[in-house]
Write a structure and sequence with these properties.
Chain lengths: 345, 517
């Protein structure tokens, strides 16, 4: 549960947080905990409120110091801050509490945000920057300043508006020490599990190299959906190609759209092999599972993969629970950017 | 020239980066004793949870084998109820269950009747044809140890066991403790095992090794640079191990009275903990490398001098008292326990690991039933700092640092150290730095059986007791158990206390005391 936020002087944030802890009721069993410094970068008040809610929920499973920044160069020049505490019960009578700091910066004062943010990090704890919304690829310098202390950059490529965002993410992965993490990629985990289950049987493994066509049907919110709605399907195709050792010369990629109120999710995958047989993965929304089946192989029963919970705080928590960079995303990013370029052409 | 087929990748490349990078191949798991408590409370709920989390292959097939008459559907219905009650991932998800249940079968049979095995074999071969299990077999013996020779003999004679030396699909057998009653019976059990199976096909389950906190002992010691330099006789004064249960024998009076706490807990769980705390760094993170080091510790345990056992060992038995606020009967009044029983429900041992690292460092071990609470705890007591600086400062009492590892419940690690009490006077007080799994990682860790079943399917025996470990543990305890069989009475302690006063004396004589876990 979040506490009432307290407006404090920017220069007195740490001191004010210490006072909050000192004034805790000593009769209550409260543990102050943090495994991460998580900084949410937002631009609007809606994004700010949403990020605060998501990170409050995420702190129940990954205790963290949360810093939420609303930075808008077009707003009036100001720099203000609030502090609060998010507490969650564990084991009945105990509570684990995480700190939350909110910073609102406008006008030219936005340039004071990166050093202020640096001063608020708990030492020796990793730093994740969650960039809410689209990555401003047109202002790379600002992005890099914000990412300077970051071990991880969390984005949601569903919000990307152009292949240039994907290219910037690839560049960050290749040229900086900040490991990218994409909530859109985390949403694919159930599809990756379902695809992997097709090739678990020893006799199926060599067939991975004989894939000739990957057909992905994804939902789209309109006939001309925003770029971000394509990224899930691009990632899936890229991952399968990279891990299966497939090339554009031997593999045909087919992306199809199915109109749906919520675009961007994969609905069906067909993997066709050299011998004319195929494997399919389909989502069964009613039963909340994905089922994988292989044509012509009767000895292997259908695999059922549980749909994973994909609410934003669960996606963030799953990312933060991974101690290391997601090497599969890093491996798949260049291939996804490449396929995206071909798609645009 | 014919083109050679590409080699089959050893692992599925699409599993890379997923939570479980290796998924076992589909196999038939036969549970002997499928109608029993262990199957219902632990094994099948664990298998269901693994399936729920996508960690098992689609074709995994489970065949229950026991005496009662069930149809496949009746067995499934009973197991579904058990999973709804006991699985970590309860309540059961219908879609996952439906698919899991398709691989769940039952064969009625007698453990000692060859004909039953013919039916079982037919069912397994049918599964190979329909579910892609490829002749791979896991036999889980959730049965009393007396049935082990019978079952393994018939499995062998019916051609249901493959020899790994000859290649082909694997056969593995999983057995539950007790691994014998003493050294002789353990050796006999092991001899029987290797007439049908090779040692690497035998997986002896000690469920303590499946616990996250027990596995964390290796990470704590060998992945953190700060601990290992201090992990020896130069810096450690002594080590304490406590396995306490608040319950009594809970309907197991007959079995427990023939075993006692030393056989039930110390021979297996506690000596596993001792070996993990005291072992040298293994040369590799591999099953045999780790078990080689563990067995060296057990072999290095100094023989307990039976003729002077009161200096090293205390055995106790609970009398009437109260536990967790309820009146508790004495052990001898428990159902199925003879009124004149001399079986120990508490034991405390002062042990020494006679090697270079641990020479003369006491390892105090205690295990008991009907103690104030259920707790398993290891504490490393460091030598105190030399005290000249604060000797004449009245407010400072230099106390030893303690690293406490809580195995269960509320798993975690804490470090106790002294700190100055704020204020003008120089006064010190002990404070603790705490790490709790639930606080840092949230959620429930997987059940020990989940991990152990998965490892068996993957063929990794790191978390299982090896034959020589089991025999070395019995060899250390055998003289003591033999002496107890002869004469002497356990000291009485009231239910709900930390054991008889003699257990406190055992440490007080050394100028130490039990840590209250």
């Amino acid at each position: 549960m979040p506490s009432e936020d307290l407006r404090v002087d920017v220069g007195a944030i740490e001191r004010s947080l210490s006072e909050i802890w000192r004034n805790q009721n000593r009769d209550e069993a409260v543990t102050r905990a943090a495994l991460w410094n998580v900084i949410a970068h937002t631009c609007t008040s809606d994004e700010h409120a949403n990020a605060a809610e998501v990170l409050c929920e995420a702190s129940a499973s990954v205790p963290q110091r949360t810093v939420i920044i609303r930075s808008d160069p077009r707003a009036k020049a100001e720099l203000t801050s609030w502090i609060g505490v998010n507490c969650h019960p564990i084991n009945g009578d105990k509570q684990v509490c995480s700190e939350e700091i909110a910073i609102i910066a406008g006008g030219e004062l936005v340039h004071r945000v990166p050093p202020l943010m640096n001063s608020l990090l708990i030492p020796d704890m990793p730093v994740a920057v969650w960039w809410v919304g689209d990555l401003p690829h047109e202002d790379e310098a600002y992005v890099h300043a914000m990412l300077d202390p970051a071990d991880r950059l969390i984005i949601d490529s569903a919000a990307f508006d152009s292949p240039a965002d994907l290219a910037l993410l690839t560049k960050i992965a290749e040229q900086t020490t900040t490991a990218p993490a994409d909530l859109n990629w985390v949403r694919l985990e159930e599809w990756r599990l379902a695809a992997a289950s097709i090739f678990d049987a020893r006799e199926m493994r060599p067939r991975l190299q004989s894939v000739r066509r990957i057909r992905i049907v994804a939902t789209a919110s309109s006939d001309a959906p925003p770029f971000g709605e394509n990224v899930g399907a691009l990632y899936f195709a890229a991952w399968l190609s990279v891990q299966g050792g497939l090339t554009a010369a031997t593999t045909d990629y087919q992306f199809e759209r199915r109109l749906h109120t919520r675009g961007g999710g994969i609905a069906f995958v067909e993997i066709s092999f050299e011998d004319g047989t195929s494997a399919t993965i389909r989502r069964d929304r009613e039963r909340s599972v994905l089922t994988s089946a292989i044509d012509g192989v009767e000895r292997t029963p259908e695999a059922v993969t549980r749909s994973l919970l994909n609410r934003p705080h669960e996606l963030i928590s799953r990312q933060l629970k991974q101690p290391e960079a997601d090497r599969m995303l890093v491996k798949s990013l260049p291939a996804a950017a490449q396929i995206a370029t071909r798609m645009v052409r | 020239m014919p083109v050679a087929a590409p080699p089959v990748p050893e692992v599925n490349p699409l599993r890379e980066g997923l939570e479980q990078e290796r998924v076992p191949e589909a196999s038939c798991l036969v549970i002997f004793g499928a109608s029993g408590d262990l199957t219902h409370r632990k094994l099948l709920p664990a298998l269901y949870s693994l399936t729920h989390d996508g960690l098992l292959p689609a074709g995994l097939t489970i065949v229950g084998f026991s005496r009662p008459d069930y149809t496949d559907d009746a067995f499934r219905a009973e197991i579904k109820e058990a999973c709804n009650k006991y699985s970590r991932t309860r309540p059961v998800d219908d879609a996952i269950w439906e698919n899991f249940a398709k691989g769940l079968f039952y064969v009625k049979g007698e453990f000692g009747e060859a004909e039953s095995y013919v039916r079982l074999k037919q069912r397994l071969e049918e599964c190979d044809r329909t579910r892609g299990t490829g002749g791979r077999r896991l036999y889980y013996l959730a049965v009393p140890p007396a049935f082990f020779p019978v079952i393994s003999d018939i499995l062998g004679s019916q051609g249901m066991v493959t020899d790994p030396e000859k290649g082909g699909p694997y056969t593995r057998v999983i057995i539950e403790k007790p691994f014998g009653h003493d050294l002789a019976s353990a050796k006999e059990l092991n001899r029987v095992a290797v007439t049908t199976f090779r040692e690497r096909q035998v997986f002896r389950i000690d469920h303590y090794l499946g616990k996250e906190t027990v596995q964390n002992l290796l990470v704590l010691r060998f992945a953190n640079g700060i601990f290992e330099p201090f992990w020896n006789r130069q810096y450690i004064d002594h080590v304490q191990f406590t396995v306490a249960e608040s319950i009594g024998v809970e309907g197991r009076g007959g079995y427990f009275d023939s075993a006692g706490i030393t056989r039930d807990i110390v021979q297996n769980h506690m000596l596993q903990l001792v070996s993990l705390v005291a072992m040298e760094p293994p040369v590799a993170f591999e099953a045999d490398a780790i078990r080689d080091e563990k067995v060296k510790v057990i072999r290095a345990l100094r023989s307990l001098p039976v003729e002077r056992q009161t200096e090293f060992v205390v055995r106790g038995q609970y009398g009437e008292g109260s536990a967790l606020g309820e009146k508790a009967v004495g052990y001898r009044n428990e159902p199925s326990v003879p009124p004149e029983s001399r079986t120990e429900t508490f034991v405390a041992i002062k042990a020494f690991v006679d090697n270079w690292r641990w020479a003369d460092v006491p390892f105090y071990i205690r295990a008991g039933k009907r103690m104030p609470k259920r707790v398993t705890d290891i504490s490393i007591h460091f030598r105190p700092a030399p005290n000249p600086l604060f000797r004449r400062v009245p407010g400072v009492r230099v106390q030893p640092n303690i690293l406490a590892i809580r195995i269960q419940p509320d798993e975690g690690i804490s470090l106790k150290f002294d700190s100055k009490v704020p204020g003008p006077a120089v006064r010190s007080a002990p404070v603790t730095m705490e790490f709790r799994y639930a606080t840092s990682f949230g959620g429930e860790p997987p059940e020990a059986y989940e991990r152990l079943l998965l490892e068996t399917m993957l063929g990794d025996s790191t978390l299982f007791a090896r034959r020589d470990e089991v025999e070395a543990a019995w060899a250390w305890l055998d003289p003591l158990l033999a002496a107890w069989a002869g004469d002497g009475e356990p000291a009485l302690y009231p239910a709900g206390t930390w054991g008889p006063p003699e257990a406190d004396l055992l440490l007080e004589r050394d100028g130490r005391r039990w840590r209250r876990p």
